[in-house]
Amino acid sequence: MNDRKDPSTERGEERTSPTISQFCKFFIERHVKTHLKSTTQAASQRATTLFIAKKIGRRKRISTTRSDVVTFRYTYRHVPYQANRTLGLLSKIFSLAILWSVLTRRSQSMQRREMLQEAEA
Asked: How many CB atoms lie within 10 A of CB 97?
């Protein structure tokens, strides 16, 4: 049995894969607007626009790595509450991508994410 993958097929998949920003728009339309309350919709829209799209939005969804997510988390360490909520949203986005069969488990970059310590108010 040959376990090797065809490199041209992999390159083609990456070339046609949407960016994180494009997939976030799809996620907002297909999930957020139909399943969440208006305040949560607004918070999700804000997080995808201000945080996700700004930092990792141009990356191809299929080539996003755990390292990208760790770097993302580190970038927003000064606002731990927002960083944790945005990481939760990213986790949901990647989980639904797997459920919708647009992402395979092997490219799942949100496994075992660590949350930032939030200050008690």
From this structure: 21
The pLDDT of residue 14 is 63
**Gap between the Cα atoms of 70 and 23, Å rounded:** 20
Partner residues linked to 19 by β-bridges? 60
DSSP string of 74-113? HHTTTSHHHHHHHHHHHHHHHHHHHHTTSS-GGG---TTP
> Using one digit for the tens of pLDDT, what is the confidence trace for 28-44?
999 999 999 999 999 99
How many whole angstroms separate alpha carbon 116 and alpha carbon 92? Answer: 18
- Name, in order, each residue with C-beta under 8 angstroms of 41's C-beta and a sequence gap of 6 or more: 28, 32, 33
CA distance linking residue 71 with residue 69, whole number of Å:
5
